[in-house]
Amino acid sequence: MYVDLLINRNVLSLDRLFTYKVPENLTKDIEIGKRVSINFSNSLTYGLVLNIRETIEDKDFKIKEIINILDYRPIIDKELIKLGLWMKEFYLLTYAKAFEPIISRDIKDIYYLFLKGKKYLTIDSVETKDFIDKLLNKSSDEIINILKDNSLKEKIDELENLGYIDLKTTSVKNTHKIYDYKIEILMDRELAFAKLARNATRQIQTLEILYSEDIELKYNELKKEYGIDISLLKNLEAKGILKLTKLRDFRDVFLDTPKTYPKHKLNEEQTNAYEKIKASDEKLFLLHGVTGSGKTEVYLQLIEDILKEDKNALVLVPEISLTPQMVERFRGRFGKIIGVIHSGLSKSEKSDELERIRLGQVRIVIGARSAIFAPIKDLGIIIIDEEHDNSYKMSENLKYNVIDIAKYRVNCAKNAKLVLGSATPNLGDYYRSQQGEYQLLELKNRAMNTLMPKVNIVDMRRELKAGNNSIFSYDLLSAMKTALIKGEQIILFLNRRGYSNFVSCRACGHIVKCDKCDVSMVYHKDTKTMECHYCGKTIGEYNKCPVCGSSLIKYFGIGTQQIEQITKEFFPDFKIARMDRDTTRVKYGHKKILDSFKNKEIDILIGTQMIAKGLDFANVSLVGVMAADTSINMPFYNSAEESFQLITQVAGRAGRSDKRGDVIVQTYNPEHYSLLFAKNHDYEGFYLNELEIRKQFKYPPITQLITIYISGKNEQKVIDTSKRMFMHIYKNVLEEPDGIKINGPAHPDSIKKINEMYRYRIDLISDFTNAEKLKSIVYRVCIKNEYNLNINGIYVDINLE
Questions:
Q1: What's the rounded Cα separation, in Å, for the pair 20 and 67?
Q2: Could you tell me which residues are beta bridge partners of residue 800?
Q3: What is the 3 state secondary structure string of 447-476?
Q4: Taking CA 799 as the corner, what is the angle to CA 318 and CA 538, rounded to the nearest 5 degrees?
Q5: Which of 56-60, 166-170, 685-689 has the lowest mean pLDDT?
Q6: β-pair type (312-316, 753-754)
Q7: At how many degrees (to 10) do helices 427-434 and 683-697 cross?
Q8: 579 has which bridge partners?
């Protein structure tokens, strides 16, 4: 028997599966999805089994044997392995890159047993004290044979499940399992009390509590409610009164007990959407509903039906900041069967949540982008809320689109459905719905028949002419005063954190830039530091120019910190808070700020895009967009779309109750079509206008755009490799029919270096009839390296749009 192994080496020259032989004594236990220890290039490591076969074609060379099977059960199920293999082909990835997001951190760690200073690869720490003592007297060869013993593995598995085995890991930060005890009373009340001494007050009190409970007894719950110590229970166990059984327990990742979230009666539009999704044999749906139209209630009722069919659900939100609100509603409706996956969890919490999912204790998984890889079984529905959001597209190193992966997962699951929801759908997805790929469903009115907010565009050029040099227009200041007098709340939006955008010397013109990146440092006044928003490097503020020594240092531009300071100067008697990455770094930071705003403990909330979508606060009557030009002027083909989406979404936070909301958009470009369509809440008008522009310039979704990113620490080598890749692709493209355009190499986003890595890009645009041929050319040149380019120290990432 032979296995094909994935070995975690993200090197193009090693981008293949490696075949090993399975010894006779391990054939019964080998399974796809388990890890095995191997000798690879004269070093001890592990491989993940992706395939098992009885024979191999080429036997002219010696096949190494695996040393041991490291897992008692597969760490990845076959569905996720198929997903990884599909991602490799679809996104033109290496094996290591494709499986990187699937092999979660809680199962990446390899555990070692250290005996007599030597290292033996194993996953679970297998020893009770007696067994360790026996092992210490064994030779190295005898230990390896013991680790191969199949009968021992069953015993080890049992000990691990009962909690008698603690894990030791080579990871810097360990995952720590927690345990509980099931308490079983073995005798009736009178006999039990008769065994206790009269002065054993604490034991008597503990027994009184145990006999008063009429539910299944668990130690952790009793400790939390009554403060009972485990030593008391063990003393009672020693007297034969009760029996303790150690059980695996899981951390509670939620801060509070959920309030009941009652089921709402659907209106006519909601009912129509719900019924069509429920009755249709189609798998893919786009739910286009204006802000406040009640998309979440449709999601909840669809999931209620899925649960009745004994299937499970996956719900994705774009921001961690949206997770608390979504979780609150789902927990209020469905209780303890909710699990969450997002980057705000600690490593141990995430490990617990993934294990609960694997064990089937979680029926509904809610999370951000990475939750798409959750090991949830019997999938009945995937819901992607705010589906237009760019955070669903992984753009750093490993590039993938959550929506592509969701499509694959529902197509592999029997009778599963994918629902994409948004007030401002991604233009490509709306276009595909017009082509029949998605079934389009629309909610054109707010759920409670409230009016859409009134949007007023303020020309900041006129403000300057009128003598107003403030970041606040006269209209916005006046509207804020009116709202605050009425006891209403305000949201101010600026998609730029920090205090000032860049720091410059007025004497010599020097701009302070990050030495790791080709970008200016952003000044943060609260910490008196300058920070690079790309690599995270921070330095202290400058009093003198590092080039000419002048003290004429000036801070230019504006960020959320400066908005907060100015707002406090205008409104000193009101409570003002800021919500951006700087204020939400602490655990539960998002939830605490949003809870305070929900409870009206904050009058004005200032924030970046994390407050721009999905949030629902009834008392918010005014939204101010401080600088709409930030997104309009970005150098991307879809910058107008992103601007329209952002303005429409943040405007949708206003007037979600019986009060009509007001939105004031400040800009130096008031005639821009994205703002005018956003003002009128006219998605379809914007879509038709933007689609004509895309057709004219042959941009997606009319075409396929493939971007190749080439990066490395040696700038000249990156340039040379980029040019050679361009040349080989160009020669191949010449052999193909018309319909393919190639541009580059050039610096992506006009930034040539990030985190000490120089970056170049090549853009390929193709009509869809030639898209697969073009992908094949890119794969052969960039991944397979058919032309034997010197790519040592070069990283290639490919993005598909």
A1: 10
A2: 706
A3: CCCCCCCEEEEEEHHHHHHCCCCCCCCHHH
A4: 65
A5: 166-170
A6: unpaired
A7: 90
A8: 607
CA separation for the pair 764, 726 (Å, rounded): 10
8 Å CB contact between 93 and 50:
no
pLDDT recorded at residue 478: 96
The arithmetic mean of pLDDT across residues 238-251, rounded, is: 86
Pair 244, 234: CB distance under 8 Å: yes
Give the pLDDT of residue 410.
96
- DSSP H helices, 509-638, are 560-570, 589-598, 629-632
Tell me the three state secondary structure of residue 49.
strand
Q: What is the 3-state secondary structure (H, E, C) of 120-138?
A: EECCCCCCCHHHHHHHHCC
Helices H / strands E in the chain, number of each: 25, 35
Phi-psi region of 159 (alpha: psi -120 to 50; beta: other; left: phi over 0): alpha
Q: What single-letter amino acid sits at 613?
A: K
CA separation for the pair 322, 316 (Å, rounded):
10
| Mean pLDDT, range 424-449, rounded to an integer | 94
* Per-residue confidence band for 169, with pLDDT thresholds at 50, 70 and 90: very low
What is the model's pTM? 0.83
Q: Write the Ramachandran bin of 516: left for phi over 0, alpha for psi from -120 to 50, otherwise beta.
A: alpha
Give the C-alpha separation, 129 to 112, whole Å: 16
**Distance in angstroms (rounded) separating the CA atoms of residues 493 and 499:** 14
pLDDT in tens, 42-89: 777 888 999 999 888 766 678 888 988 877 778 888 999 999 999 999
Higher pLDDT, 759 or 125: 759
Q: Supply 733's token pair.
A: 């493209």
* Tokens at 10, concatenated: 């993200």
Element (H, E) at 224: helix 219-226
Cα–Cα distance between 371 and 409 in angstroms, integer? 12
Whole-angstrom Cα distance, residue 304 to residue 748?
45
- How much is the mean pLDDT over the chain? 84
Residue linked to tokens 């955070």: 391
Radius of gyration of the chain (CA): 30
Query: Tens digit of pLDDT for each residue in 412-435?
Result: 999 999 999 999 999 999 999 999
